[in-house]
Amino acid sequence: ARKFFVGGNWKCNGRTEEVKKIVATLNEGLVPASDIVDVVVSPPFVFLPLVKSLLRSDFHVAAQNCWVKKGGAYTGEVSAEMLVDLEIPWVILGHSERRLLLNESKEFVGDKVAYALSKGLKVIACVGETLEQRESGSTLDIVAAQTKAIADRVSDWTNIVIAYEPVWAIGTGKVATPVQAQEVHAELREWLKVNTSPEVAATVRIIYGGSVNGANSKELAAQPDVDGFLVGGASLKPEFIDIINSAT
Ligand code: 13P
User: Fold this and answer.
1) How many Cα atoms sit within 13 Å of 182 on the Cβ side?
2) Using CA positions, which residue lies closest to atom 5 of ligand 1?
3) Which DSSP string corresponds to 46-111?
4) What is the mean predicted confidence (pLDDT) over 54-68?
5) Mutation to probe ligand 1, out of 91, 230, 242 (largest number of atoms < 8 A from CB)
6) Coil, helix or strand for 25?
7) Would the CB of 233 count as within 6 Å of ligand 1?
8) What pLDDT band is residue 167 in, cutting at 50, 70 and 90?
9) Band of the pLDDT at 46, cuts 50, 70, 90?
10) Least CB-packed of 19, 46, 56, 159 within 10 Å?
């Protein structure tokens, strides 16, 4: 069985006092043990050391991005080497907000995933279609192409979690139905079986993201191919604990 995984993507939110409050709430939360669920929270870069220093030891931290190769003259970027230096174990790559607002191509995201893994980071790799792409029937083509750009550059999937995040569900309150999520997760797993290996397909965790909250997580988590969540807005609130508890 695949271990449940819940990530909290704080995006570009928080000030020091608020960050401390969120962490205090997380630290008090009653959740299943770390052999049942992996919990990873992803504050903005500037808060990573603070969050890491305050956060309970059974939860881990993730950066929201990193540079595509070794650091150097790349103004505004943060390298994988720096994250490793700060003992940040995880990084989110390929989030749709970066693909769409910052024009990150699937090849660029694939290169980032490969580089981050090569430095020892674990990666939450995000894929997902826009509303227009869904309505034109190309959901699987899009998700497969984004995943292929990673598969072309990576052979060991042990340290990758795939986050399926349909763009139309992100921050909209329009959560995918359990049936919609399960359908894409199962198709993506089948794609992995054919294009990587049956072993990768069986073991890689595919988590869902897009308007997940404390009220809808349980039903989504019951789907056989939904192995957890990447949560945006609700990860800043106490209900994140309820979402973690949908692991059991
Ligand atoms: P919301 O949960 O706010 O819809 O965001 C989802 C997301 O983009 C997580 O990475």
Assistant:
1) 9
2) 232
3) GGHHHHHHHS-TTEEEEES---SSS-SS-TT---HHHHHHTT--EEEE--HHHHHHS---HHHHHH
4) 98
5) 230
6) helix
7) yes
8) very high
9) very high
10) 46
CA distance 210 to 175: 6
The rounded distance, in Å, linking the Cα atoms of 85 and 70 is: 13
Ligand 1 geometric centre to CA of 131 (Å): 15
Is residue 230 predicted with pLDDT exceeding 90?
Answer: yes
Residue that the structure tokens 């505004």 belong to: 76
| pLDDT (0 to 100) of residue 174 | 96
In this structure, what is the dihedral angle of CA atoms 149, 187, 208, 198, given to the nearest 10 degrees? -70
Nearest to 109 by CA among 31, 162, 61, 33: 162
Locate 34 and state its tokens: 């770390």
Gap between the Cα atoms of 41 and 241, Å rounded: 12
The total domain count for the chain is: 1
CATH of the domain at 169: 3.20.20.70
| 185 catalytic per annotation | no
How do beta strands 59-63 and 122-127 pair? Answer: unpaired
| DSSP 8-state class, residue 124 | E
Q: In this model, does residue 1 exceed pLDDT 90?
A: no
Instruction: Give the domain extent around 238.
Output: 4-247
**Per-residue buried b or exposed e for 69-97, using 16+ beta carbons within 10 Å of the residue's own CB:** beeeeeeeebbbbbbbeeebbbbbbbbbb
d(CA 103, CA 95): 11
